[in-house]
Structure formats: structure tokens, C-alpha cells
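Exam revision sheet. Question 4 asks you to relate a sequence to its structure. Input first:
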Amino acid sequence: MDAQEALARRLERKKKLQEQREKELVEKQKQQEMVAAAAATGGSVINVAALLASGTQVTPQIAMAAQMAALQAKALAETGIAVPSYYNPAAVNPMKFAEQEKKRKMLWQGKKEGDKSQSAEIWEKLNFGNKDQNVKFRKLMGIKSEEEAGGSGSVDEESYKTLKQQEEVFRNLDAQYEMARSQTHTQRGMGLGFTSSMRGMDAV
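Answer key, C-alpha cells:
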């Protein structure tokens, strides 16, 4: 009889363990369904207190999923940018993702028509003294305005001074180039190491 009683007790324990395992599996499936439903609805917050009150065991994974959903909801409320569902919510910080998206939008949005810098206006007003050179320069610089540089009547004093300085620099560069050219072509054989006696030997 002792053997039969021991066998009956073992069977009862095994049956109880199996029932507990099945119950845990059912609870895990319910929790996973709740997490999946929360993720599908766009990051609605899982209420951990409600899970505890219902008697459901809260695992660390569920608590972390609830925390990530709360962060995503907060980021969505503050910035209006939601983290896409294909990102792992535990691996992506929703606030930093929103900042990156804002920077990306600012970087790739086009400039407005009236948005010109002061240097761009100076380049457009630059005058080389010749209309053809002005047109060529504008094409090379990618300036699309058809206006003449001298035709615009509203030239402020500062840009006028800059234009005058640039014209003076161009004149000086031209003069220096002509002087260097004349020295290299007309005064060959003169300079360090060349003396009049050596020049006389060349003539002989």
C-alpha cells in the first residue's frame, strides 16, 4: 500500500505542476498580447498598477515595455514625432530620435527665395568693368539673378567701399602681373650671378 500511496502522491504533484505551468503560459500569452496591442495602438501606456491589481504577475520585460511605451508617448506629446514601429523600443531613445528627425528636416528643407546673405549680395554686385566678364563670373559662381551689378540703385555705403577695394586690388594685380611679365621676358640674363664681364664673353 505504501508504494501505491507514493505513486498517487507523485501523480498528484505532477498534475499540480502541469496545471501551474499551463496557467503561467496562459498568463504570458495574455501579457504578450497586451504588449503587442499597446505597441499596435501607437505606444499607449501599459498600466502596470492595473496588471498588479488584476493579480497578473508583472515580469521585468513587461515593466520595461511599459516604461518604453511611456517614454514614446511623452516624446510624441512633446515633439509630435513618433518612433517607427520597426525600431526596437528598448534600443532607441525617443527624445534623441525626435531631435535627429528635426535636424534632418531642417537640413534638407530648401532655402526660401528671399533668404540671401550679405556676402551673396556683394558677389552679385561685383563689377569687373566689362559686362561679358560680369556675366561669365555670375555663371561660374552659380548666381541666377539677371540684374546688372551696376543697375541696382540701392547700394549701401559699406558694399560700395568693398567694391572699390576689390577694383583697386584687381588693378594692383594686373600691374604686378605686367611688371613680372616684362622682367621675365625682356631682362633675361640679368640678376644674381650674371656680371658685365660674362655678358661680354657671350658677345665674343
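Marking note for examiners. Residues 148-153 have pLDDT under 50 and may be disordered.
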